[in-house]
Each structure stands twice: as structure tokens, then as C-alpha cells.
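Exam review. A common question shows you a sequence with its C-alpha cells and asks you to describe the fold in words. Practice with the pair below. Do the first one on your own.
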Amino acid sequence: MKEFDLIGRYFAAGGYERKDVVVGIGDDCAVTTVAPNQQLAITTDTLVSGVHFLKDAPAKSVAYKAVAVNLSDLAAMGAEPAWISLSLAMSEVDDAWLADFAEGMYELTQYYSVQLIGGDTVRGPLSMTITAQGFVPPGNELKRSTARPGDWIFVTGTLGDAAAGLAVLQKSLDAGDGVREYLINRHLYPTPRVAAGTALRRLASACIDVSDGFLSDLGHILRNSACGAHVQVDQLPLSAQLNDCVSPDKAREYALTGGDDYELIFTVNEEQRGNLETALGSTGVKFTCVGQITGNAGKVDLKLGDAPFPMPELSGYEHSF
């Protein structure tokens, strides 16, 4: 199948259409309109087979996750997603795989009112690069570098489920049918916290999404903000499903070091803490206070109750070259 036939069959139609897209797929460039009093937030992520997703992962989940991780980055900046472009490399054309891939991509873009506006397809090892763009009002962007001592540390949702789901898929963790399905879905189909991210504008002092693990990603905030943190390990939000299939110690390990949750870690000062319930209440997203920012730059103090908790040997996923 020729490249333009492939694009026409699977990607040129069927997705969400936005009024701010002047020229979409079919020309050398897309042309879009940026609304007045808005800044453009841009992020790019590449997912490679065997590195970011299992080689036998369903095509629908691969596309879904590829879109979700980019929307999660926008959410962490407080941006509302608008457009994506896709570069897809594959060794051969598989019609059934491509149909499922397009379904997974469009399921998420339809839900978040995001339009695919362009990209590329090439022959090569299976991988995909998505660039996502969204809007954030001037001065409302959330950053990693603006946490301050005394700020409270919060996290959305639950932690550790995606890492446990990967362990189930890799057959290193056993789980009952209901629990198994829940954990696997949390790994294959993460939920970008877009509504929570936009609700945190003007409230959160800093924010990041949990892609590489709670401790690893909190560490980015601490390094960029020249701060430290006290984390109450027994306050980490854990799902009933995770607690059902592993020991408390293993659940905490997954929560602290497991990646791919795509929840938000955010910090809030004492003055704004009381406004969180109102701001996030309409999103339906659970959030939990797990600690506080300190002035001890680079130092993370973990506690289980009143007792010190040892720092895990694993500190989250990091690419090596």
C-alpha cells in the first residue's frame, strides 16, 4: 500500500474536527488558528516497541497510550489539548493492526476534542512519535521549578497500578480475574488528567505527571525548585485491587517507583490548600496529600507513620543510551 493511500484510509478522516483547524491532513503543512489571549503549549513523545510497550500489545492500546502520554504532559502544564500530529514507523502494512490502531487513537481524541492534523508514515521498526499542542492562558502555565518550602504535596488517583499491570502481563505477578483486568487496563489505557490539570491553574505552585515513577518525577520538581520533601509513605493512594494482590511492602514499592501511572503530582501552598476541593470537585478526580516540600534541597525524607522508611533501590524508569 502506498503512503498516501494508507494515510487516506486510516488517518485522513473519521477523527474529531475542530473549527480552529484551517488546513488539516493533505497538504505540506497544517494551518491552525490560535485564539486571542492564549499561549501554545507543545510536547512530543516517542514510543518504541519493546521499550515503551510490549511487542505483543494490542494495537488499540498502543495508539491510546501514545496519545494519552502526550495529553498527560499537557495536563501537567495546565494546558487544554487541541491538536496532535503523528509519525508512524512500521515494518509492514497490516490492515487489521492499523484499523485497531486508528480506533484507539480516535477513541481518545474524540473524548478530549483533539484533532489529528498531520504527520508522516515510514517503513522501519515499529515506533510512533506524537506531537501534541494545546492552549493555556498567559501566566497560567504550571511548571516544575516553582515549588516552595512549606507547600503541600498532592497526587491524583492511585499509584502503582500500571507497574503491577505490566508485571501481570509479564507473568511475574499473579492476580484474580477482576483484579487482573483492572491492573492490565491501568497499564494499557492510562487516563490523562486533563480536567484536573486545567483546574489547578492559579492553585498549584508546581506540577508534573507520573511517567517514570512517583519518586523519580517528584525528584524533577525538587531539583528544578531547589527544594527537598517529606513524604508520608502510608498516605500514598493505593487501589483496592493493588492491595488485593500484593503485600503492603510490595504495593508501596510499586507506588514509589513504578512508572506509567500518568497521575499528577502537584504542590499547593497553605493559602490555596482550602480551595482544592472546590477546584477539583467537579472533575471527579480523587486527590491525596502525601507530604510537604522542605528547604533541604535534594533531600527526600520518607516516613512510615513516625518511623523512617528506607529509600527504595529502584528510583523509577530512566532511558539509557
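Now try the second one, then compare your answer with the model answer below.
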Amino acid sequence: MRLRWVGVAVLVATLVLTGCTSTASCSDGNDSNGKSSGSSDGQQGPTGEVTVFAAASLRTAFDEIAESFEQQYPGVTVNPIVYDGSSTLVTQLQEGAQADVLATADERSMTALVDSGLAADPQLFATNTLVVAVPAGDPGGVETLADLADAVTVLCAPQVPCGVASQTLLEAAGVAVTPASQEQNVTAVLQKIAAGEADAGLVYATDVIGDDAVQSFVPQGADEVVNRYPIVALDDADETGELFADFVRGPDGQRILQRLGFGAP
């Protein structure tokens, strides 16, 4: 009788050590390799949608960032990103437009949003500087910043970040320009130059990368006029908004931004 109980004890000990029988799965939900039978890491990833408002100069970078973000978080969909001048986007949000994330091309526009009580604690994620852009071949013969005074020049409107930076650069150089038009975002300025509707204009260095329709040069003093880009998840956003903002500031987002010509924050 004593020997029979010893045999049972040995069998029980063996089952405890292996965690399961030879014909059945373990009772704690693990498979034969000890992994959860739910997902590969035992946890469900984030799900939902995220709506992003971003400065026009971020279009190429944020389109790529959104694609990379969705690959890393397949349960989250990035809705088509809304691009425009930073001040325009802030006004839209103040008037009731719905978004989870805002990225602007300057700190002043972001401060206006924070002062409205719609967000708090924005973080810098990139920097940018200006170049003089001209149509390919430079038909207007624009070679210096001073040449803009006599050329058909398009600029960003003074209320948007690229317009503020343009005026700062021109004033510091003592160059007076009467623009042929003032556009609401930097994309519109570049489009007019590429179409040959202007001799020149001031745009961001990142805007001309890979655009064969234009050529550019860095004017003297451009390195002293630096636009700093902040990003924030709005106060009423769910966790996907903060997740996207963190991704932009993280190593994957920073690699994309720096490859496309943006400076580090």
C-alpha cells in the first residue's frame, strides 16, 4: 500500500513540473511552448482612429510617418491628415473642428491653441529654415536675397509661420519686398514657383527636396531664423492621439523627419 502512494506522488510531481498532461493543453491557457493562446505577447494592442492636423510643410514627412505608425500599430487607423497653415489649423480647432493631434510649424501658433484651453504641454519635435526657391533654370536671374526686391516674388501670408520667418529674414537683411501674392501656406508658394507664376519665393528647406521643378539656394542669415515645430495631443483626444505624438517624437518618427531634411528639436 505504501509503495502505491509513492507511485502516485511521483506522477503528480511530474505533472506539476511539466505543467500539463501529454494529451491536453495546460489549464492556465498556455500552449505547449508556454505562450499565451490569445495573442503572441499575451496583450491586445491599441485600437481606434486618430485624426491629425499638421502644418503644410509636414505633408511628405507625416504621410510617411502615418504609414509607419499604422504598420507598428495595425489596430489604429490614421485618418487622412489635414494639412494647412498653422494659424489656419488653430483657428479651425478653436471654432470646433475635431482632431486628436496638432503639429504646427512654429511655437506662436501652438501657444494660441494652448491659451484657448484645448491642449497642454506641447513638445518640440523638429526644426526648419528658409531657402530662396526659383523655377528650374532660374529664368528670373535671382541669385541673392536682395534680388527678391526686383523680382516677381511670392511669400507666405504674414500670419502663418513661413510668413513670419520670411519677414524676419528680409528685415534682418534690409530687403524690402512687395510680394506679388501672399499665400496661406508654404505649399501654395512652392506651387506658384514651380508653375513659373513667380520668379522666386521663400519656402522651407524641406519643401524643395526632390522637386525637380524648382531649384534653391540658402540665403545669408537663414541659419539665424529657425522655425521650431511643436506637437501635442488635444485634451479631449483618446490614447491614440498621445500614441501618435509619441511616435513622431520617438526614434522612428525622428529618422523619417531627419532623412527628409528637418533638423533635430
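Model answer, second protein: The chain has a mean pLDDT of 88. The first helix runs from residue 2 to 18. Full marks require stating both points clearly.
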